[in-house]
Specification:
The complex is a heterodimer of chains A (346) and B (170).
Chain A (H helix, E strand, L loop, with lengths): L10 H13 L4 H12 L8 E3 L5 H5 L2 H4 L6 E7 L2 E2 L6 H17 L12 E8 L11 E8 L12 E8 L4 H4 L6 E2 L3 E6 L1 H15 L3 E3 L4 H13 L9 E7 L6 E7 L1 H11 L5 E3 H19 L7 E6 L3 E4 L3 E4 L5 H16 L1
Antiparallel strand pairs in A: 1-12, 2-8, 2-9, 2-15, 3-7, 4-5, 5-6, 6-8, 10-11, 10-13, 13-14, 14-15
Helix pairs in contact in A: 5-7, 8-10
Chain B lengths: L1 E2 L7 E2 L8 E5 L9 E5 L13 E9 L3 H11 L11 E6 L11 H10 L4 E3 L5 H18 L8 H8 L11
Parallel strand pairs in B: 5-6, 6-7
Antiparallel strand pairs in B: 1-2, 3-4, 3-5
Classes of the chains: A alpha+beta (346), B alpha/beta (170).
InterPro entries (chain B): Centromere_Cenp-M, P-loop_NTPase
Main location (chain B): nucleus
Protein name (chain B): Centromere protein M
Amino acid sequence: MDSCDTPESTPRQRASSRLKDYFIGATPLQKRLESVRRQTSFVPTPPRRKIPQCSQLQEDVDPQKVAFLLHKQWTLYSLTPLYKFSYTNLKEYSKLLGAFIAAEKQKGLAVEVGEDFNIKVIFSALLGMKGTQRDPEAFLVQILSKSQLPSENREGKVLWTGWFCCIFGDSLLETVSEDFTCLPLFLANGAETNTAMIGTWFQKTFDCYFSPLAINAYNLSWMAAMWTACKMDHYMATTEFLWSVPCSPQRLDISYAIHPEDAKALWDSVHKTPGEVTQEEVDLFMDCLYSHFHRHFKIHLSATRLVRVSTSVASAHTDGKIKILCHKYLIGVLAYLTELAIFQIE
Amino acid sequence: MLKEDCASELKVSSVDWTSSALHLCSPRSLAHEGISHLAKSLPLPSSVTRPRIDLIMFVVNLHSKYSLRNVEESLHHVDATFFLGKVGFLATGAGRESHCSVHRNTVVKLAHTYRSPLLFCDLEVEGFRATMAQRLVRMLQICAGHVPGLSALNLLSLLRSSENPSLEDL
């Protein structure tokens, strides 16, 4: 789809460059159609992805401020663009959402034993959580319980946390108009009832749609390869894989743990192109693990379903749960998740 | 197992997910009786006498990389003349995206490499299975030469979609 400089470009390339010229200055809808058309090119090119590196923007992020994002299990959702969302109205949104939650709780829809009805909602911007300057700012929503005792006027404990972000979301950003804010990745930690309530409020207020983001085995093996490829000073956790064998009557789970340095050594032997990960390398990496396992246990892991991948960088479960362990590669992990979220929206 | 039915209708009752190839043979008789054989891999044992094979459908389960490997291995054992319209690929399991280990593009590329049609069908769903069975029987009839005026090679060129560029355009 690049502009054709050489005279011997094929008719198809010439047609697509003409198409591209036509779409400069087109409406968002036309841009969207063009991007969809681009994706359905019939000759599939194997994806190449960059190994997560410490990006320039990440240097500005204070590790203390984002420390609360690490070591927590987040449930992933993909979110369509928010209509008429404004970063200046965060305080107002806090009040509105707080009132909504109080009303819902009084309706008796989500009553938990011993729950404190004094809830405070805080919207805050998360600075630095973006891939490029074009990405919209990430923001955070927290539900805190207000302390009942008058003597304590400090903030109560955090009951629920959710944050919205967009890392390298260029493919989505160029197809939406000015009124929309694109934050396709939503991560939630806390009670499911709270997530549902907050989801409902956002859907009503900003005309968006949440859907749970599942990670299939194909993407999990990509994550395993990319995270193993990350350079780490010291490894905090073993590299572990979990497969689910579909057999009746009971499900059988196979867990395979490797020493992280061995995994890195295996990756280094497979890796050819510097700075990038290709489909062949991912397949080869996984095939090495499968054949090693087969040699010892005579089980074909490739016939089972990869359900969980856990490395020192992060761990991911197929149900859409993620835990990030290393702040250095936080942006890299989120970039891939954003890509999956955008793919699901489209 | 795929069972034969005298009314030339393939009834699929259950499919073994690890199997990756099935053969459809048809005798020259006008009774239009389709016989199908299910095989896990090729080559078939040569000790058994069997009727002429008219169509080979390779079933790839997108949930399992193992089935893809199996199909790739088996493809080496297929005689080259079969690829003139008598081979097809059937990808199953695309409906449950969260369970997929094999990317859709991988099978598309495989079918493209072997110049054979690729069909997608979720064999776990009853309705889709029945429809696909009817479609396969039709393909089988053409490949066996039971449809006058249409050969396997004609069918192949008809099934190749117009978006799909041929090798010369790449």
